[in-house]
Amino acid sequence: MTVKEYNQCVDSFADGLFRFALKTLGNREKANDVVQDSFERLWIKHESVESSKAKSYLFTTAYHACIDQIRNSKRAVTMDEVNLASYSTIEQYNDLQEILHKAIQLLPEIQRSVILLRDYEGYSYQEIEEITGLSEAQVKVYIFRARLALKEYIGQIEVVL
């Protein structure tokens, strides 16, 4: 990868990488650190990474950095440990994005990561498999379970509106 290709990667992928890290970690400073670390690692290996594989390399690096951050801070909360009734949206409320963001933060770390990669960043199952190191079947199961948990948390659309 040349310097010009590296700079194109920064322009093309920095925003998406930041969104992924922010949604995964829920902390702007930590997300910035993950993005910066990912690009630093890409630069260190820029001679051995093909420019066509740079996006996958960056998201794989960011994914692993996010998992490390979560494990180090022990912030992961499983849906089983959360009293969903206390988070229900009984009153009329219009900010669906805030409700969805809160629901995503309650997911276990692996489910949160795969749902963000699939539904927010638009990766295919094969690409998520490559990034996370999970099998395609595992990716599909985690996405299915995450969507069920999100549906249960949000409830019926009439309650939210």
Description:
The chain is mainly α. The chain has two domains: 3-73, Orthogonal Bundle (Rna Polymerase Sigma Factor, Chain: A), CATH 1.10.1740.10; 79-160, Winged helix-like DNA-binding domain superfamily/Winged helix DNA-binding domain (Arc Repressor Mutant, subunit A). It contains eight helices and no strands. It has helices at residues 3-25, 28-44, 54-73, 96-106, 109-120, 125-132, 136-154, 157-160. Helix 1 packs antiparallel against helix 2, helix 1 (3-25) runs parallel beside helix 3 (54-73) and helix 3 packs across helix 6 (125-132). The longest helix is centred in the first third of the chain and has 23 residues, at 3-25. The radius of gyration is 17 Å and the shape is globular.
List the helices and strands and how they pair.
Blueprint (H helix, E strand, L loop, with lengths): L2 H23 L2 H17 L9 H20 L22 H11 L2 H12 L4 H8 L3 H19 L2 H4 L1
Helix pairs in contact: 1-2, 1-3, 2-3, 3-6, 4-7, 5-7, 6-7
Based on CA inertia axes, which overall geometry fits?
Answer: globular
Which superfamily, in CATH terms, is the homologous superfamily of the largest domain?
Answer: Winged helix-like DNA-binding domain superfamily/Winged helix DNA-binding domain
- Number of DSSP strands? 0
**In the CATH classification, which architecture of the largest domain applies?**
Orthogonal Bundle
Work out the helix count.
8
Based on helices, strands and strand pairing, what is the structural class? Answer: mainly alpha
Give the low-pLDDT segments.
none
Mean pLDDT comes to: 80
How does the major sheet shape up? none
The radius of gyration computed from the alpha-carbon positions, rounded to a whole number of angstroms, is 17 Å
Helicity range: over 70%
CATH topology of the largest domain: Arc Repressor Mutant, subunit A
- The CATH class of the largest domain is Mainly Alpha
**What is the string of helix and strand elements?**
HHHHHHHH
First-residue to last-residue Cα separation: 49 Å
Give the percentage of residues in beta strands: under 5%
- Our count of domains comes out at 2
